[in-house]
Every structure is written in structure tokens, then in C-alpha cells.
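S., here's the first fold you wanted:
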Amino acid sequence: MVMEGRRVPESFEREMIRDYIILTHMETMLQRSLDDFRFSEDILRNLYAMAGQEVMDRITNRQREIRRELASRDIKLLMDAEPQFGAFVYNYKFLYHGYHQEFGMTRDVMRSQISIKFGEIAGDLSTLLKQK
């Protein structure tokens, strides 16, 4: 799509950018949780750690897929977020065919997307466990 002589990302390309950003936050959250389990004395610690590692593997695999797809479309995401409006909106910069662009998300949108994605992964794992 061309707008005012500049190329702008298609909606599905913006979704890939959003998903990559969300997955990066999920990875950080999950890693902190896994680190906390390492020092826990919970009897199910090993089970939680295995489940957490499976979720981490799914997140990193999806990130890798998105990163490859973005690279093939000449999109480079710069992961430095700039909080604006009292840190309610985070703007992420990216290069799209050499043009500097921004992608903004509110904290509420990020939270809901993280919840949705963790729910999807939990559903997938639940289905996998029920099949065995």
C-alpha cells in the first residue's frame, strides 16, 4: 500500500509487529517466573518448570518465525519503546523498506494481548495433554 509517496505496512504486517512485541514481553515475564520457580520449595516445582519451558519453547519458536517473515518483508523492528502520555502508550520504532515508522500500543492492549496469547498456548497444551 502506498500513502503520500511512502510505503506503509499492511494490516497483517502490523499484526506481525504487534505479535513480536507481545511475545518479547511474554518471554521476559515467563523467564522471571521460571527463575522464581528455581528457588521454590513447591513439591510441583519440576512440573511447573517443565510446563514453563514448553511454553517458552513455543514463544521463542513463534518469535523466530515472525522475525524471519519480517526480515523477508524488509521490516526491521527496533525494540526500544518510548513511553508517552505518562507511560500509558508505548511507541516502538521500526524500519519499513527504509522508512522510519512507529507502532504504538497502550498498556491495556498489551495486557489483553498477553492474556490472549497465554490463553491460546494453555489451550494448545491442554489439548496436547488430553490426547495422551
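And the second, which I think is the more interesting of the pair:
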Amino acid sequence: MTSTGKIPYICRLKKTIQYLFLPLLMMTAFACSKYQRVLKSSDVELKYEYATKYYNEGDYAKAFPLYEEIGPLFRGSERSEEINYNYAYCNYHLKDFILAGYHFQRFYTVFPLSDKSEDAMFMSAYCFYLNSPVYSLDQSNTKEALGEFKKFNNTYPTSSLRDSSLVLMKEMNAKLERKAFENAELQFTLENYKSAVVAFNNFLKDFPESSTYKEKTSFLILKSSFLLAINSVQKKKEERINDTIDAYYNFVDNFANEKLIKESEEMYDQILKERDNLITEK
């Protein structure tokens, strides 16, 4: 303890910290002021040089505004391709996937012969994929991503990125499939049986290879048709009874779920009675 009441060790530690951090603070301040000077400069070559430097160092936040400013100024030059490509990736690394997707899309459109065009087309699709929300929300970005991936695979059928694109497409198709099925199922739950039949049939047209929902969809077409038929007015009953019989055979000929088969047969027996009653009434 010194005469001033301070512990020598603590004093030395404070001085050491000051010596360590003061140069760092000075370097940071210098770097910031230097960056500001570059931003405010009218020297386009200087801005290009620093934009490239920051980009290569992974400092996309600093590279971004520089590329944004000089991009139009280099349009038509040899550097335009590099600037536009790097600018798209700046948006991507800064997690603005909407703008990144747009700029990657613009890149492969403007520079179709570039050796970076393949990557840009994949990244355009991938950015839409990253913006694809959970299945219950609007799926516009999902459909956009699927369209971009299809375009990519058609344009570059032997690309090393093809397998990755197919995995992502499968994931997104599963999302669309689930949404479509649940929308159709909602009509059934709400007892809108006519709409349910239409929605379930549309589902099978859109997703003919569905392994997750195909059996349940076919069964619910039968059940919706059955409930629609037995609750129909007389003039529509015959047609709807026949639709139910068709739906029954379509289900039992293609699926073997014991529980659902049993329920299907019960509906079939009842609909035959409805048909017999209809014939008797005539």
C-alpha cells in the first residue's frame, strides 16, 4: 500500500491496460476517419480500390456503400462484371436476401456469358429459398425459388450444384404440398364438402406422387362425396351418389389401410341404400 492508499499492483495493471488499448483506439479512430475520407472522396478509382480491399477482407458492410456508388459509374467497363457480382454478394452477406436475389438475377441476365453466371443463377434461387417462410404463410417466395432452381437446372444440367438444388426443391415442394393439403382439409372440417372435393382433387393433380397425403386425400374425397350426397337435394342426389361410388372404388382399389377400408365399406353400403331408395321413389 502506498502513501496515497493505492495498491501498486492495481496501478501497474491500469497503466498496462492503457498502454494496450490506447494504440488500438487510435488505430480504430484512424481507420474510421480514413474510411470516411474514402466515402467522401470524388476519386472513383480510390473507391474501387477500397471497395475491393474491404470485400476481399470480408468487411461487406464497408464494401457495400462503395460498390453501390461506383456500380453505375463503371457500367459498360471491364470492371462492371466484378463490381456487380461482388455487390450482389455484399447484399447476401449482409443478409438482405431479397435484394441479393434481385442482384444475382440481374447479374446472370446482364452477363450471361460470364464464368460467374452459373453461381449467380444458383444464388438467385438460393436467396428466394432463404426468404421462403413456414408453410402456413404466403408461399410466393417459395414458388419463385422453385422457378429459379428449375431454370438453373435446365440451363446447367451438369452443374456440381445440381444435387444441392434438388435437395432444396424437394424441401420446398414438401412445404407447398402440406399447405395445399391442409387448405383442402380445412374445407372438409368446415363442412364445405363440395369445395373439399374440388380442393382434394386439385391436390392430387398438383401432387400426383405425394407419399405423405395421397391415401388420406383419396379417403377424404370419398368421405366428402358421401356426406355431400346424403345431404343433397333430390335433383342432385343421383349424380352425387354415383360420384361417391366412383370415389369408393378408386380408394379401395389403390389402398389397403384396414381401418379406412372398413369405414369406406360402411359408407358404400349406406350409399347403395340411398341409391335404392332413390330408384324406389322414382
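Why I say that: Residues 13 and 19 are 10 Å apart (CA to CA). The radius of gyration is 33 Å.

Talk tomorrow,
H.
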